[in-house]
UniProtKB/TrEMBL annotation, chains A, B:
This is HTH marR-type domain-containing protein. Residues 1-133 form the HTH marR-type domain. It comes from the Bacteria. Pfam families: MarR. It comes from Catenulispora yoronensis. InterPro entries: HTH_MarR-typ (IPR000835), MarR/SlyA-like (IPR039422), WH-like_DNA-bd_sf (IPR036388), WH_DNA-bd_sf (IPR036390).
Length: 142, 142
DNA sequence: CGCCGAACGTTAGCCGGTGAATGATTAGCC
DNA sequence: GGCTAATCATTCACCGGCTAACGTTCGGCG
């Protein structure tokens, strides 16, 4: 069991578990916050656009949007100019989650990296970015 | 979108995608390799033991074991002494995957960290371990 | 103008993961 | 010895993610 893969995977799982627990207090599930983040920035985007921005497939967005619509966080509306398109619009409830959820995420980041000095934090990001680039290249070509 | 959380999440997703693609060549799905790794080390363990070792819930093991049994990688047998227990035993097919899968994983680790010097690799592990510990503490207490 | 292909959202089915409820079996205590 | 409580595995329903198949709607070309 290679060291980096194991450690990276474990860390990711723990982080996801914490994020999930905190999102649950706002009635959200893991991943839905990313979708919301995009809509907070700009309303009325299409599932395809959102999927591309999140590096996720369209069905993932559609299913999530259906659940979030049922939860009253957003509404679906067809585009009048191009009837193939569907646009997602936030409700007041969806908009209201912005501040607390963004704050939660900032706090989580701060708590996780609290044990690192400024130089260490910077270095961690630098090294992780290297690995990420290697992964992206392997995924594309290798 | 905090820097570390975002970068770490992206990296994990890319790594998982690569691992999934490579496991698929052996007829495995993501996560099944971890279960196999435990059984390669020691056969005849119970779902509960495996779940605890992998830090996963028991239903996850049960479902995976069902699929892997259907794929001919392992067999289920009830313990004769304690009839509540179920023990998972590898088939020859399951054992045969050991070398290629372990080799794949070692190679993936090497490829991902190829761009790092020895000092950098060590430092990355050290810093990531710090974050992991912080996450574990948050998960337990905070 | 009509057809045919491209673009798009949706659905269905699978996978790993979770929590909650079920059922069987053992262990412990009176 | 018998009843109760703890311990297992299993099942069900849900979530995010994926691929593949489907149906609609628009665009371009003859």
């Amino acid at each position: 069991m290679p060291e980096f893969l194991d450690l990276h995977g474990r860390t990711n799982k723990a982080v996801r578990a914490i994020a999930d627990a905190r999102l649950r207090r706002h009635g959200l599930h893991l991943g839905q916050d990313h979708l919301l983040a995009l809509l907070w920035e700009q309303d009325g985007r299409t599932p395809g656009e959102l999927a591309a921005a999140l590096d996720v497939t369209t069905p993932t967005i559609v299913k999530g949007a259906t659940r979030m619509a049922a939860a009253g966080l957003l509404t679906r509306r067809r585009d009048q100019q191009d009837n193939r398109l569907v646009r997602l619009w936030l409700t007041d409830a969806g908009r209201a989650l912005r501040k607390p959820v963004e704050e939660d995420r900032r706090r989580l980041e701060a708590e996780l990296t609290a044990g690192l000095g400024d130089g260490e934090r910077e270095q961690l990001l630098r090294l992780l970015a290297k690995v990420h680039q290697a992964a992206a290249e392997l995924l594309a070509g290798g």
